[in-house]
Amino acid sequence: MNDNFSAKVHPAASAGKMWVMGDEVMKRGRLEGTGFNVIDVAVPPGSGTPPHTHASPEIFRILQGTVTIWALIDGKPTETEAVPGDVVTIPAHAPHAYRNASQAPALMMSVVDDRMMEFFEAAASHEPPAGPPTPEAIGRIMALTETYGIHILAA
Hints:
- Strand 2 (23-30) and strand 3 (37-43) form a beta hairpin.
- Strands 1-2-3-10-5-8 form a six-stranded antiparallel beta sheet. Strands 7-6-9 form a three-stranded antiparallel beta sheet, with no helix packed on it. Strands 4-11 form a two-stranded antiparallel ribbon.
- It is globular and about 50 Å long.
- It is mainly beta.
- It has helices at residues 114-123, 135-147; strands at 16-20, 23-30, 37-43, 52-53, 58-64, 67-73, 76-82, 87-90, 96-99, 106-112, 151-152.
């Protein structure tokens, strides 16, 4: 038995909050000794990402609301509605996007690697947005996508 390790509870109240564009990202925990990070992403109505690719694989589990997942399947753009309980897996370099097309907030838990977590932290604001992203905020995010190897396919 290894006494150097033990279970650790990460209380919801201690989640670090940040806003990446219009989405609230809450750092929930990191599995020590791996590159796995668990985050919650609150996606307000109308928010989401443009189609993009990156080297980091991702997993989303929809907790609340409906999230529209965009992907290329057999070379064709396809949208699928993901609802609470659904799990979405995104391999490295797979073209994908998500958006909340409904009138209700959506919440998803995601597992991301350290590189994607670094991007979120670099792109984040620590104050909720007052409205839609400004051209300056979009420009800053676009510059960071280049730094972190994220390729926007369409805006």
